[in-house]
């Protein structure tokens, strides 16, 4: 079975000539999708277009939930087609809702985006499902 490097890379292990942590195909795809969603275009200096451009509207209080969903779905489908070619027949669903973010000091009402990506792994023809939840304005992982 082919192994894929886990992110983030631990360069100290590399320079000490130790084996770098690895993962399987599905986990590698999962990690790439997570990185793609949480990266703002321009953040990756090797490829300025890598990342989710919907973060540009993170603080836009005038953008309604349906428009935000359309923006996220369209952007992610485009980015997945460009940067995650190991899956196909990709379907992206997004739910935007108001939720409470519990912190040590307070319970904060925040907009939460729940993203689901379904597809088929090209190499194995197995179904693939990725889910994540993000609080936006500013980004917080669920």
TrEMBL record:
It comes from Niabella drilacis (strain DSM 25811 / CCM 8410 / CCUG 62505 / LMG 26954 / E90). This is Gene 25-like lysozyme. Residues 25-123 form the IraD/Gp25-like domain. It holds the Pfam family GPW_gp25.
């Amino acid at each position: 079975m082919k192994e894929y490097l886990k992110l983030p890379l631990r360069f100290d292990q590399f320079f000490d000539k130790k084996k770098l942590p690895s993962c399987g195909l599905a986990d590698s795809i999962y990690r790439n999708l997570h990185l793609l969603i949480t990266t703002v275009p321009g953040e990756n200096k090797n490829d300025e277009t890598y990342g989710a451009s919907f973060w540009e509207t993170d603080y836009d209080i005038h953008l309604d939930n349906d428009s935000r969903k359309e923006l996220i779905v369209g952007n992610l489908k485009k980015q997945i087609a460009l940067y995650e070619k190991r899956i196909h027949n990709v379907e992206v669903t997004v739910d935007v809702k108001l939720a409470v973010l519990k912190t040590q000091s307070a319970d904060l009402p925040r907009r939460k985006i729940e993203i689901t990506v379904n597809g088929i792994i090209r190499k194995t023809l197995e179904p693939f499902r990725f889910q994540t939840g993000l609080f936006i304005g500013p980004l917080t992982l669920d």
